[in-house]
Design a protein that fits this description.
The chain is of the alpha+beta class. It is built from 9 helices and 15 strands. Strands 8-9-14-15-11-12-13-10 form an 8-stranded mixed β-sheet. Strands 1-6-7-3-4-5-2 form a 7-stranded mixed β-sheet. Strand 14 and strand 15 form a beta hairpin.
Length: 277
């Protein structure tokens, strides 16, 4: 698909601007959206429906998968309600993600999802690919829009709060705690790539006071990276992470798994052995 350039769609001098612009709106995933499991449509966009508001809409992602979502008035705003939590779950949408909605007419939207690396996500190619729970509803057209809300186990939710990859904590009886990630776009972006330690793992085995992280790779090489704290999350990012990612050729290993095994820690730093699975 041809990539879009900002100038191709955003100039007031473009005679088609008024025709194109109203077909789209954008939303950033904020805590309120995650808590209420609803997403409000901007008032200016909702007005295009006039007095005949639809009761549902179809959301379709790049891989062609579709979900029917209920549309209801909440606090005098038109919102995606029943089925929206399922859509977020199925696409592993998290806090801070950026969504673009492109209206195709007849209650149908194409949705483009961007993660914290500023890149489009690796979209699921089948239902339940990323979901922890199996929702018995609203896949595709004509589905009954009802939803069984399943409460996440807190520990499991923390382990999966960011889809950097498949996060698996090893047997708790192991002498060396470890976790495994699958290399994703968020890791290997040249502009804002990063690695985020799973929250469930870092809460048990790491400290927010860490100033640095040492990564040991094959051949005895050592990499010393600055540790960054983002809210409650620990991350590796910036020039140090970019150098590690480039010199270990992670771009060539997208989709492959790496295990980080904790081998040493002090009050100010922690050391991991990085093992390619």
């Amino acid at each position: 698909m041809k990539k879009r350039r900002r100038g191709e769609e955003g100039s007031n001098k473009d005679k088609n601007f008024k025709k194109i612009n109203p077909k789209k709106f954008f939303k950033i995933i904020l805590p309120k959206i995650l808590q209420t499991k609803t997403l409000s449509i901007p008032d200016a966009f909702a007005k295009k429906f006039g007095s005949r508001l639809p009761t549902d809409a179809t959301l379709t992602i790049r891989t062609g998968l579709s979900w029917e979502i209920a549309l209801e008035k909440v606090d005098n705003k038109l919102c995606f309600t029943k089925g929206w939590a399922n859509f977020m779950e199925q696409n592993a949408i998290k806090y801070g993600y950026f969504l673009e909605f492109e209206y195709q007419g007849k209650k149908h939207f194409n949705v483009y999802i961007f993660d914290l690396s500023c890149s489009e996500i690796d979209y699921p190619t089948k239902y339940d690919q990323y979901a922890k729970h199996k929702f018995p509803l609203n896949r595709g057209h004509g589905a009954n829009v009802k939803e069984k809300v399943v409460e996440d186990d807190e520990d499991e939710a923390e382990k999966n709060m960011h889809r950097n990859g498949k996060v698996l904590e090893r047997n708790s009886n192991s002498k060396s705690p470890s976790f495994t990630i699958t290399v994703r776009n968020s890791h290997i972006s040249d502009q804002c790539g990063y690695l985020q330690f799973p929250l469930g793992f870092s809460d048990k085995h790491m400290e927010r006071s860490y100033e640095s992280v040492t990564l040991l790779t094959e051949g005895g090489r050592e990499w010393h990276l600055e540790c960054h704290v983002y809210e409650k999350l620990l991350r590796l990012r910036g020039r140090d992470w970019k150098k590690f990612m480039q010199e270990n050729h992670w771009k060539e290993h997208k989709g492959e798994e790496y295990t980080f095994m904790l081998v040493d820690k002090t009050s100010s730093s922690v050391t991991f052995q990085v093992i390619k699975e």
